[in-house]
């Protein structure tokens, strides 16, 4: 990883005609950082990678959400740990459901955990999910671990290296939502504990190099005791 | 002359607490001091001890307060009962509501609220100990807390006061100067552009005195700004060292 400079809001990061990514703003000819974080100019645009912050839904993201107590006639409301609550219409459910014959609360109760796809984010910030995408489903058992959404790319790793290693070394099923929710299901709770510890370690040491190897070491060392 | 008023405010070019006329009180800023809040900052500024915490952007309650065009910034300035010599009755009062309002307006001018419609950003400023100039310390802490929470903003907002005591224009009044002095002029700026986002005046100044005091306050703000930047950088480095 190339050395990225730490910048704070108001710091000048570029001049002239450049493409703007996230976390920056333009005023006149100059570009300034809007958030504190690491400056990245590697992808043909100027952006600041925030190290903290909440999840802001983006079309195309897969997220893990929990069905809330507010269930409408033809839609569920889903908590995706973001400032905006999401809506899952019954027509976007992965199976055929007729909300006028079977109440939606009987199809998915409040508290049900789902893996879903962000289909639309309206200008008024209405967030619509769909489960008619590959991999979308109701997830049962296991546990949910909440990590910072800013650390999700690190948990997945380049070409899923970190996530692949975690699943391979522990034999657990792991789903990562872009919103920072991680679902972990293992044969034993002790193994789930280990994965959770590993996730916490990744979150804390996200910006250090050689992390995948160290996490692997940790798992190999500790799984004997599990 | 009121009881307790000092006869001279400046002796041999030094103020009652030993400072020069254009000198700040010792200032220490620390970012990211609270674990539960999204962002936080602690400021020790002379005898002032201020804790600021920030949450958000988050879903707004009550819902009717939501703005479909931008996030709603809510600030709460509050003084602890033990922050002053005589116990302060806890809870909001006229003064703290005024300060909450001017703080909100100062911060609204830099936060990119349009990015997060229908949400709320809450900022809590808790004065643990007061020694005059708490609104400036509060704004200074709050803007560091907002940056620490990763909320997009144009710049940090440093604040600093200047005033007039015993006929002299001085920087950063402390309690005795504030109580018995002739004028107090708190100022908050956007350092990069020089925009003024808070200015209030207590007492009277002539036009020349005002201009002199304003210039001095802006210089003070720039010193505060350096400390704010340092605090954020240090918080980032600390996170790195813990590994």
Structure description:
The complex is a heterodimer of chains A (226) and B (243). Chain A is built from five helices and 16 strands. With 226 residues, chain A is an alpha+beta fold. Chain A has a five-stranded mixed beta barrel. In chain A, helix 3 runs parallel beside helix 5 and helix 4 runs antiparallel to helix 5. Chain A is flat and about 60 Å long. By secondary structure, chain B is of the alpha+beta class. Chain B has a single domain, classed as 2-Layer Sandwich (Ribosomal Protein S5, domain 2), CATH 3.30.230. Chain B has helices at 94-108, 134-148, 175-180, 207-241; strands spanning 10-11, 14-15, 27-31, 39-45, 48-59, 72-79, 119-129, 159-165, 168-171, 183-190, 195-199, 202-203. Chain B has a five-stranded mixed sheet with strand order 3-4-5-7-6. In chain B, strands 8, 9, 10, 11 and 12 form a five-stranded antiparallel sheet that branches. In chain B, strands 1-2 form a two-stranded antiparallel ribbon. In chain B, helix 1 (94-108) crosses helix 2 and helix 2 packs parallel to helix 4. The longest helix of chain B has 35 residues, at 207-241. Chain A binds chain B through residues 6, 8-10, 23, 25, 27, 32, 34-37, 50-54, 56, 83-85, 124-125, 150, 204-205, 207-208, and chain B through 38-39, 56-59, 68, 110, 112, 116-119, 147-156, 190-192, 229, 232-233, 236, 239-240, 242-243.
Overview in brief:
Chain A contains 5 helices and 16 strands. Chain A is α+β, with helices and mostly antiparallel strands.
